[in-house]
Every structure is written in C-alpha cells, then in structure tokens.
C-alpha cells in the first residue's frame, strides 16, 4: 500500500457515502442499541451458505453479506466488480483490488465516531438495566454448591510452580520423559488439551491423544509429587513397536514417533478430519509442528527446475565437528554485527547452520537425474528452502563422529533466531555468502522455550530437559527432580534438541 492510501475508495465516495457508511456501522458493526443488536443477529448471515461466522463481511456497494474464510464475499466482489467490503466484527475495510485491509482518514474518522456512540449506548443500557450487553455473572445454586466443595482458588504468581511436575523413570525412559516435558510446556498444545478439545473416535484406553490429555491434566493439577507415566509408556510400546523394551532409546526418534502417533489419533477432532492425509491435515499437531520444506532440483544443462514440497516436523542441522564439512557463513563472522548483535570471531550461529542447510548442493556425476526438459540424465544442483514455517520449530543438532554433543553456548545467541522463508536464496560474491536485505521479517522471529540435553555417548547416557516457564523462568527437569535454573545453565548444557516458538502468530 502506498503512503497515499488506496485509490479505489474514490468509487465509493459519491453522493451520500458518509451517511451510508454511518448506517452500516450503526446497524451491522458496532450495534450500540438493543434493536440494532437484534437486527444484526437476524440479518447478518452469509447470503450464500447462511453462516453467521467465518469472518462475515458486508459489501459497501450493495446489501450483500458473505463469508471471508470461504471466499463467498470474494466471489461477489469479482462478479459485481464491487471492490470494497467491511469486516462486521472489527470494522476494518477490505479492498479486493489491493487484496488488503486499507486505511482512509475520512472512513477511519467515521468508524471512531460511531464506535464511541455505540459504547455510550451500551453504557447507558448497563446503568438503566435495559438490554444489558455484558451482564454480571451470578452463580446458580448448582455452581454455588460446586464452589463450596472447591473453595481453593489457584492464582498464577511470579513464583508459581503450576505445570512443573517430575516424571518417574521406569527403566531407561529418560528419553521419553524429556520429550514429554517439552510437549507439556508448548503453549498452544497446552491450551488445546486443557480446553478439552479432543474428540476421540477410538477406544480411550488405546488413544495416545486421550492419554496426553490426561497427562496435561495431571501436570497442571497443582500436585507436586512425581507422576508415573506407565500408561503413556504402554501406549508408546503399542503404537511404536520399534521403541518397545527397556533399552535406552533416542529422544529425537521418540519425538518423531510420538508426533506421528498423535497426528494419526487426532482424526476425531474438528480440525483433524483429514488427518489420514499428511499433506492436507489441520489437526493440532500439524497446526503447531508442521512446516513445508521445498526442494528445488536444477538441471545444469537446460536450467529447468523440478520442485517438490514435503512436510517436516523437525530440521537436522550440521554443526562444527560433524561428519560433513562445515564453515561459518554469517556475514561479519570476523567479529562484526549480525542481526543487530556482535559476536566473537569464529563463533557459529544458528543462522549459520540454517544458511548451510539451505545452500545449493551440487549432486555430482554419480547422482544424475532424468531432466523433464532435456529428457536425459544430467548433473544437477539441489537447494532446500522453507516454504512454510511451523509455529514450533524443532532443531536436531547432529552429533559429532566422536559421540560428543555440542555445548549450546558455542552456538551464538540461541535464545532468539530468525528463520528463512522461501524468499531466501543465497548468492556468492567474492567467496562471501550474502543475504538479501528484505529476506528476514519480524514475523519470522523465534524464541527458545525448551532444550533437550544429553550427557554421555551415543550408546549410553542420560537425557534431561530445560523448560521455560512464565516470566522467562527456566527449570531443569531430570526425571523426577525439578530444579530452578539460570540462562547460563541452559547455555552451558549439552544441547541435542532445541525447541523454538514463533513470537508472532498470523491471523487466519
């Protein structure tokens, strides 16, 4: 949108447009009086599907209500060439030519004036007792009885420990306990299970999602004694037989297996009806953890590009000392500024690891592919990019050949990172990899909220977890023992899995 604003509003600003806009705000958006609220409830439905919700919009050029989510208002705008519509919930004006919500000084002034009038009418209704919109809640007799039986009120304070609970080790099950701690402290997953959103279509004693729901209830019940996850272990053995037994298992492998089983058991939920198709699923697991990884294979002869997009739940990153060659890629790795911060010479950042993950790779003569353009086998290059970013990004730090896990503090500034979208394409000039200025966006910032650690070697060792509680407090979870930790403790630990949460969530 240019600084001058949207030019398409001029087609609406004719005759008595101000009065017409005021009537729309009064009757269909703010609805200050009892009569207008009743009228809005009866009349504001989609003219195509009859729905009240789905982000209902009203055409500003004629009397037409349509769903924004199902694009019924889009169809009307295209057929009638009516470019402007108003959101009946928030009052924002959308231009279908600009494909964005627009700002117009005159329209904004009318919206504010009508909103203030509506607030005054609602306040009058409250004081007069007529048509009260926000009525005072008063408990019923049944609710009073329940409150008497449960008089204790739990308040969240700065030192509150609700949600912190240890897990008993059932015999080399620290690999499971550390992942459970990370999942139970994933904010959106916690909100889903604590709001009882799961609708089971299986036998409850065999559904892993039902068990996770019960586990969240146990964690946030306020009990301090360690929980014994024997039912969870039994279900994991049942649905992921390769993890059965009392041998030490890999935490990363358990995470992927757990997400896969949870994904398959979410079929009964409202957003998981298509969970049997991993590429078209909106269950809670895919909403939070699934991203889209794009692979572009370019023919070296005709430069034709073959593109595939695959879902992913985690990204495995090479680190210094891993089996593949690694070198710092950050601009200014000699001590200059990166992302607004300076870091020591030679320090490796997570951005370095991501750059290396997304850089073009020459496949060589031993891996020729049949090009659809040349119709012959040719050498090619392959490049991975992020097509869609997940809400929770899990990074698996590969272990060095000697079995030594990387110390997190050697990965510079791990508490806040930027993740590249599809726009990011590396270009090499004079031996330096450069990044386009506009490739990073504030919406792509992630913050660390859980770290799974490993002490020991690949064959044997012990897993622990650092989790971030409210107010940026960190705690170490060592099976049944929960202790307070500092950021220094987190950075000094031997990281194996890093869990990052997106700081800004898009409105859908």
UniProtKB/TrEMBL annotation:
<feature type="domain" description="UBP-type">
    <location>
        <begin position="4"/>
        <end position="121"/>
    </location>
</feature>
<keyword id="KW-0805">Transcription regulation</keyword>
<dbReference type="InterPro" id="IPR001607">
    <property type="entry name" value="Znf_UBP"/>
</dbReference>
<keyword id="KW-0804">Transcription</keyword>
<dbReference type="Pfam" id="PF02148">
    <property type="entry name" value="zf-UBP"/>
</dbReference>
<dbReference type="InterPro" id="IPR013083">
    <property type="entry name" value="Znf_RING/FYVE/PHD"/>
</dbReference>
<dbReference type="InterPro" id="IPR001394">
    <property type="entry name" value="Peptidase_C19_UCH"/>
</dbReference>
<dbReference type="InterPro" id="IPR018200">
    <property type="entry name" value="USP_CS"/>
</dbReference>
<keyword id="KW-0378">Hydrolase</keyword>
<protein>
    <recommendedName>
        <fullName>Ubiquitin carboxyl-terminal hydrolase</fullName>
        <ecNumber>3.4.19.12</ecNumber>
    </recommendedName>
</protein>
<dbReference type="Pfam" id="PF00443">
    <property type="entry name" value="UCH"/>
</dbReference>
<dbReference type="GO" id="GO:0008270">
    <property type="term" value="F:zinc ion binding"/>
</dbReference>
<keyword id="KW-0862">Zinc</keyword>
<keyword id="KW-0539">Nucleus</keyword>
<dbReference type="GO" id="GO:0004843">
    <property type="term" value="F:cysteine-type deubiquitinase activity"/>
</dbReference>
<keyword id="KW-0645">Protease</keyword>
<comment type="similarity">
    <text>Belongs to the peptidase C19 family. UBP8 subfamily.</text>
</comment>
<keyword id="KW-0788">Thiol protease</keyword>
<dbReference type="GO" id="GO:0005634">
    <property type="term" value="C:nucleus"/>
</dbReference>
<dbReference type="InterPro" id="IPR038765">
    <property type="entry name" value="Papain-like_cys_pep_sf"/>
</dbReference>
<keyword id="KW-0863">Zinc-finger</keyword>
<dbReference type="GO" id="GO:0006508">
    <property type="term" value="P:proteolysis"/>
</dbReference>
<keyword id="KW-0479">Metal-binding</keyword>
<dbReference type="InterPro" id="IPR028889">
    <property type="entry name" value="USP"/>
</dbReference>
<feature type="domain" description="USP">
    <location>
        <begin position="165"/>
        <end position="503"/>
    </location>
</feature>
<dbReference type="InterPro" id="IPR050185">
    <property type="entry name" value="Ub_carboxyl-term_hydrolase"/>
</dbReference>
<dbReference type="GO" id="GO:0016579">
    <property type="term" value="P:protein deubiquitination"/>
</dbReference>
<keyword id="KW-0833">Ubl conjugation pathway</keyword>
